[in-house]
Structures are given as structure tokens and as C-alpha cells.
Amino acid sequence: MIVHVDMDAFYASIEERDRPELRGLPVIVGGDAQRRGVVSAANYVARSFGVHSAMPAATAKRLCPQGVFLPTRMPHYVDVSCQIREIFGRFTPLVEPLALDEAFLDVTGSSRLFGPPEEIGRTIKTAIHDELQLVASVGIAPNKFLAKLASDLDKPDGFVVVNPKAIHAFLDPLPVTRLWGVGKAAARKLDLIGIQHIAQLRALPRESLADNFGASGDQLWLLANGIDDRDVIPDRDAKSISHETTFAVDVDDMERLRGVLAQLTEQVARRVRAAELRGRTVQLKIRYSDFQTYTRSTKLSQPTDVTDEIWQAAQSMLATRLPERTLAVRLLGIGVSQLDRSKLSQRSLFDDDQRQRSAQLDAAKDKIRNRFGRDSLDRGSSLE
Question: Which InterPro entries does the entry link to (predicted)?
Fold first, then answer.
């Protein structure tokens, strides 16, 4: 069975937790109503005014003039996300993060130690609430599609279990827009042939859907029947590990970009080490204000999980990429790929003194942050 955990209004909930005086107020994270920008998250009070993520901040201000607008504290949210993943790891090593605020867990092999999937899901939900004072919605089902759908049905603070013997009964009354890939255009096309609910869609011949929608039609038929054979892929089995951020306001200041890239690099390196992996290729991703996206990669002389080595490659690519364009940057990302499971103990035999010192420093910082959070180590805006 698969568990999907989705944190409710994650960024805004963290801000409310950290500042109790905000509770009951419309909290809007990531937008600045005085400048061009977009909302990253809104709590449920703000949502009642029509505010939602990706909305222009000026629109959010118009809809909710009394809203409390807060800057995004991405490094802090990343640390809280790591604390949540630590809770997941108590029950299964098969954890696939989708974003900072949601993940799939395969608990098929965990029942002998921790009870049935429903009990595991409730225990995880309770641990997140009791230890981190945050609320999660949980969906439990035989596959990833159904688990995610279940977690979305009863937010916030939801808990929905899909009985493997009652999948059609679960899906039948839901609108077709609940299926992955059915947006407004597809919904209109289905509506023209009298299809509004999943039960109606499933009643159509598979060939008919393929004729009308091509390859996506076959996928619709599978989802309408509750079929999804994708595995949960944890970081340790991933082909790459990456982080990226989209700026509310495009950035053309090199020092700020370096600072953000440094934070992203630390987050990626920390995940690589947590998965007991080392990567040989570092990739930089930049999206400019005209929405053109560029990537550049560097192959290292040997696989690494050392923050400083990843950072040296990242900042070098940033320095050579940016002078080619005069536009400001909208999105910045860093990733590590060509991952392997080289024994970390091999460092003591083959690595030079500087590399060993850097690795030991990373290990010490990880230990402190895992216990006390990122704010326990106050570093500058960039790695030097």
C-alpha cells in the first residue's frame, strides 16, 4: 500500500507556528503587495478571500487587503521538510519526495513492524502534529495515483483510505477533472460527449478514448479504472537530486544569485549525503525573465557528496553563464546526477586532507542541523 502525505498550507503553517500571533489572520507568503511578485502560499483564512498560490501579489492584496504578507524563508522550510522526512524514515526507507511539502511512502513491507497501513498513516500524521505542530492530510491506497487523490479529497487535516476492493466505488462519483491530465480543455471536450464523472468515462471503450485523445486517452482509461503501476522511487534510487527556486521578482544582482545558489547547493548536498550517495555531474539551471531556460553541466573528476566541491562547480557555471545574457533571472536551480553508492569510508584511503576536512565539516553540520534545525548554524549568504 502507498501513503501520500501532503502538508496543509505548508509555508504559511510554518509561519503561523513560529509566530502564534498570526493564528486566525490571513497569512500570505511569498508576495509583496507593493511590488511585482506572486504568492507562494496562503493559509486557509486567506484562501477564504480567494487568495491562492501563483496569484499576483497585487491581486491578493486587492482580494484580501487585511492580509499579512510575509517573505519566503525557503531555507527554513527546507529544514522543516527534512524533519518531516525523518519521521517518514522511521517507518519505511521507500520515500519519494514530490516537493518540500509532500511525499509518497511505500509501506507494503512495514506492516509486520508497525501495523496495517491505516495505523502507519495515522501514526505519521500524529507524529507530525505532536513533534512539529503542523497538520498533514494523508491518503492511503493501492497505488500512487489513488493515494494522492485520496489525500486531496478531505483537506485540511484529512485522512482518507481507499479500500483495494472498492476502487471503482471510490472513483465513480468524482468529476473527471480529478484525473491527472484532465484540465479545462480536456474537460470541455469530454463534456461535449456527455462525460462529467469518472464512472461515465470508465464506461467508454478503451479504443474510443484512444481514438479521441490519442496516447493520453489510453492513460485516461487506466486512471479511470484506478490503474497506476509506478513504483515509489526514493532519493537513494533517483537518477538525480536537485533543488530550484522561482523568484517573486526577477533578480539581476550577482551577489544575491550567488547567495541563493549557495543555499540551494547546501540543500542538494545534504540530501545526497542523507541518501548515502555521491554524484559525478553537477547541473545548473537558469530561467531568464523572457522564460528562456538554459542548463549547463560539469563533470567532476570523481563522485562527491562534499558541499564545497558541488559549490565550486556551481558557482563556476553561474559565473560563465550569466555574462552571456543581459536579462534578469526568474528561476535558479542546481542538481547532482550520475549518482552512485560509493562507500564513504573510501575517503580515508584515497582522499586528500582538504577533502577529508570538508567532508568532516559537512558531517558535523548535518548532525547539528538534523537535531536543531538550519537556524542553529547562521552562515553568510554564500559559501566561500
Answer: DNA/RNA_pol_sf, DNA_pol_Y-fam_lit_finger_sf, DNA_pol_Y-fam_little_finger, DNA_polymerase-Y, DNApol_IV, PolY_HhH_motif, Rev_trsase/Diguanyl_cyclase, UmuC
Annotated binding site for Mg(2+): 6, 101
On whether the CB atoms of residues 19 and 133 are closer than 8 A, the answer is no
Q: For the chain, what is the domain count?
A: 3
Please tell me the predicted confidence (pLDDT) of residue 358. Answer: 66
194: in domain: yes
**CB-side neighbour CA atoms (13 Å) of 186:** 19
Enumerate the known binding-site residues: 6, 101
| CATH number of 173's domain | 1.10.150.20
Calculate the alpha carbon distances from 129 to 14, 126, 134, 311 in Å: 12, 5, 5, 35
Looking at 162, 185, 203, the residue that finishes a domain is: 162
- CATH code, 246: 3.30.1490.100
How confident is the model over 219-236, as a mean pLDDT?
89
User: How does pLDDT run across 41-55, given as a tens digit for each residue?
Assistant: 899 999 999 998 878
| Domain extent at residue 73 | 1-162
φ, ψ for residue 287, nearest 5 deg: -120, 125
The model's pTM is: 0.69
195 and 83, same structural domain? no
Q: What pLDDT is recorded for position 239?
A: 81
Nearest CA to 246 among 41, 14, 5? Answer: 41
Q: Do residues 293 and 314 both lie within one domain?
A: yes
Is 102 tagged catalytic? yes
pLDDT tens, residue by residue, 284-298 = 999 888 878 899 999
Mean pLDDT of 167-194: 89
Q: What is the pLDDT of residues 346-362, one digit of tens each?
A: 444 344 566 666 666 77
Q: What is the DSSP string of 212-269?
A: HHTHHHHHHHHHHTT---PPP--GGG-SEEEEEEEEEEEE--HHHHHHHHHHHHHHHH
From the list 15, 102, 266, 309, the catalytic residue is 102
> CA angle, 180 as apex, 211 and 231 as ends, to 5°?
105
Output the pLDDT for position 370.
52
